Amino acid sequence: MRLSSMADYAVVTMSAAARHCGHARVNAQQLADETGLPLPTVQKLVSKLSSAGLLKSVRGAGGGFKLARPAAAITLADIVEAVEGPIALATCSTHGRNDCTLEAACNVRPHWPLVDAALRGALAGVSLVQLARPVPLTPELSA
């Protein structure tokens, strides 16, 4: 499994926003500058993240974005789902999707919800606090 670019960028954007937690609000241009992401991408992401209740938008002078709740209460699963929708590894585990040619004879389909729940649980175990924290370089990482 691999995250889409937008989900990856959402994690990068939220991590940057979390580093401003408790300080002044941050605007989309600042997030773009800090992350190296294009401004239109950041604008699209902050819109989705705000709609999902992860960021709050404040208009006017001194406006910008701030976390909608403490970074410790936002998880990697929350961020991924804000951009991608519900976590589902197989197409057939998404409700309303019936486009698999094996669906009628598939013995694995009933097990996908268990797999999806395990994956979501693993992602939910990683908080935004952890993602925003700098990781010290070790000799293996710096090489």
Explain how this protein is built:
α1 (5-18) crosses α4 (76-84). A hairpin with a 5-residue loop joins β1 (55-58) and β2 (64-67). This protein is mainly alpha-helical and 143 residues long. It is built from 7 helices and 2 strands. The longest helix is centred in the N-terminal third of the chain and has 14 residues, at 5-18. The protein has helices at residues 5-18, 28-35, 39-51, 76-84, 112-124, 128-132, 139-142, and strands spanning 55-58, 64-67. Helices cover 46% and strands 6% of the residues. The two termini are 26 Å apart. Strands 1-2 form a two-stranded antiparallel ribbon. The chain is elongated, with a radius of gyration of 18 Å.
Q: Could you give the order of the helices and strands? A: HHHEEHHHH
What's the tally of helices?
7
- Structural class comes to mainly alpha
- Major sheet size, sense and barrel closure: 2 strands, antiparallel
Q: Tell me roughly what share of residues is in helical segments.
A: 40-55%
Tell me the strand order in the biggest sheet: 1-2
Low-confidence stretches: none
Mean pLDDT: 88
Total strands: the figure is 2
Termini Cα gap: 26 Å
Strand content: 5-15%
For the CA atoms, what is the radius of gyration?
18 Å
Shape: elongated
Topology, pairings included?
Blueprint: H1 5-18, H2 28-35, H3 39-51, E1 55-58, E2 64-67, H4 76-84, H5 112-124, H6 128-132, H7 139-142
Antiparallel strand pairs: 1-2
Helix pairs in contact: 1-2, 1-3, 1-4, 2-3
Describe the structure using short key phrases:
mainly alpha; 2 strands; 143 residues; 6% strand; two-stranded antiparallel sheet
